[in-house]
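assembly run, all chains below
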Amino acid sequence: MSNQSYMVATFRDANTLIKAVKSVRAKQFRVYDIYSPYPIHGMDEVMGVRRTRLPWVTLIVGVSAGLSAVLLQFYTSVADWNLNVGGKPDNSALAFVPITFELTILLGGLSTIFALLLRTRMFPGKKERLPAEGVTDDTFALVLRKRDASFNAAQARQVLEQNGAESVQEKEGEL
Amino acid sequence: MSTTAINTRPVSAAGSAVQVLPPPRWVDGDPSLRKITDDIMNPMEGKPGRGWWICFGLALLGLADLGAMVFWLVANGIGVWGLNNSVGWAFDITNFVFWIGIGHAGTLISAILLLFRQQWRTSINRSAEAMTIFAVMCAGLFPAIHMGRPWDAFFIFPYPNQRGPLWVNFRSPLVWDVVAISTYFTISLFFWYLGMVPDLATLRDRAKGKIKKFIFRTLSLGWNGSHRTWARYEIVSLVLAGLATPLVLSVHSIVSMDFATSVLPGWHTTIFPPYFVAGAIYSGFGMVLTLLLITRQTMNLQRFITMRHLDMMAKVTMLTGMIVSYAYATEFFSAWYSGNIYERYHFINRATGPYFWCFGLMVLCNVVTPQLLWFKGLRASIPGLFMISIMVNIGMWFERFVIIVVSLHRAFLPSGWGMFVPTPVDIGILVGSFGLFFTLFLLFIRVLPMIAMWEIKNVVGNSAHEAPVHHEHVHEEVAHV
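ok done. output:
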């Protein structure tokens, strides 16, 4: 995994970048990734990124959490040790709704966040791998990966430069 | 078309475009992305001014007061408060409901307005969310210290224990409350933090010192602005907003059930959940206005927190204020129409009894004051808005006081009637909670970006090319407008 080689092109604005991504893809290059200070709307389609399946995590964990909350409340209030409070029935299902709802939200939400961190391999203290300086400030970068010898570096460089890249550099390492 | 500022928006799947009014601009001037970073980082990189130190000093005094008062309370028991057999809940629960309510505006701005795609939220969402978190921390303090034995507070969680196991009573709204508020705090905290990660990465990449770099590297999770990450991140933000929206509505509904599920006149009413939620948002917007007016003026953020933002916030305040006024009227109507003598007496007593002035203050601040916001001139006046925001804060504190204390002090049998008079400890803890809140908020605006940089860049950057990206045919024409 370690030493890959990449071609990094930087851009000043999102419009030029979008055009460049289109041209690069039209020339049959695969875009490894783009880096930007803010999420560029419409980039998913241009880059051909599939919509994430992370919301399924929310659904699955949320539903399980809700069911567990119902079971917990029935088990403790009806089966394990039923308390007579003001003569109310032990299995007052309606009274169990708020906690069921809250636990659904809590665990659904937390699991989604942790799933995002796992999927994007982010963790506290991770050393950042920046393709170019300023991508978290005002620079946009388009990165192609040289997968094997068939990668036509000269053509790639030409396409990028023709499409307004401010600089095109080749980089070794890991992104 | 290419010579006017009119934006072209697709309206049908066929791709036919019509001319519509240009979208409102939420950032003044046309700052470059670098300029946005510089402007927002400015307060964090320079030395704080004298104004900040004065405010921080006062806040620390308040915090010290809170510490001393809570110590005194725990050492002596809740007898140091003005509570008695008639009025068993007073300042403590009033403060609790007040602070929880403040928090609600933050979630409204960050989650509900995100779902409605209101771009004006981007300048204020970060600080509003911070306000939520600090307000919920202040709120959480009160039920804990009200327990008498706060060291046993963990008994409220349903864990297997050696007392039976004796479980908590899941039918009690007080237990619902604990779960709702813990959930609210946790989700708000994570939502706030996750929203800050891209900005923390910007801070990391600008940090000069080693310690700063280490801290921001730890917090920024290795963020590098990859679009594959952004794409997932945006969907996750939407999912969280979708979860936080019903959550925030449920939290104050559940808080209101602490009262509504009892049989006390003035509390026992089905209107409480929506009434409390509207009141919460109203009071929260009051506090957001107070905080943002101060920070905007003292930290030179006029470019990002524009008069149009203040105007929008004033309008939300007015709307929710009118919902609250309507709820007040409904309460009186139901009391009369119910024919229940205790209910009727309670409302007569509320308006004309010994606490009539609290009721009067509440009506003045929450019914009359928001009506002033019809005037455009007032919505455009900084001192005017500031005054109104303070009135809203005062009014909403008194609303909770009226609901809680006035209902308790003369319920059913006259032999059980009494009066509540706050002791210095009551007042000291109320003042101290403001100390805690402002200490946290003032630290926040010094060490973290109080405006979401990436979201501002998002609004500025994407509005420049939003339409053309999807529709090639308009691209060329709009590009050089």
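The first strand of chain B starts at residue 8 and ends at 10.

The beta strands of chain B are 8-10, 17-19.

not gonna interpret more than that til we talk
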